[in-house]
Design goal:
The chain has a single domain, classed as Alpha-Beta Plaits (2-Layer Sandwich), CATH 3.30.70.120. 30% of the residues lie in helices and 38% in strands. The chain is built from 3 helices and 4 strands, in the order βαββαβα.
Length: 103
């Protein structure tokens, strides 16, 4: 399995998370609300409120999940970072994998 980190506007976080789970592209999406991001964009320093999505996904679904995020995301260049967990509880890993299978 993999964990995908994706920042987004707070008012879009639940919509993006729900769409990924509804489409079978993620087993679970945890939303971390109310973060502040400071970054350079097109030569200017920006300071924005954001939320972080922690997207739990089976390895086979990573490309489709990334493509869906790019297509749905309101940012011109969305932050999409894929992490490989060093260790995952076997029962949780099995649940993630099973959750990605169609009923």
């Amino acid at each position: 399995m993999r964990v995908i980190l994706c920042s987004c506007p707070p008012d879009r976080a639940a919509q993006l998370a729900r769409a990924l789970v509804d489409q079978g592209l993620a087993a679970c999406v945890s939303i971390i609300p109310q973060i502040q991001s400071i970054y350079r964009w097109k030569g200017d320093i920006q300071h924005d409120a954001e939320s972080i999505l922690l997207i739990k996904v089976a390895l086979a679904q990573v490309p489709a999940c990334q493509a869906a995020l790019v297509g749905m995301h309101p940012y011109e260049v969305p932050e999409i970072i894929v992490f490989t967990p060093e260790s995952v509880d076997p029962a949780y890993h099995a649940w993630v994998t099973a959750s990605m299978q169609p009923d």
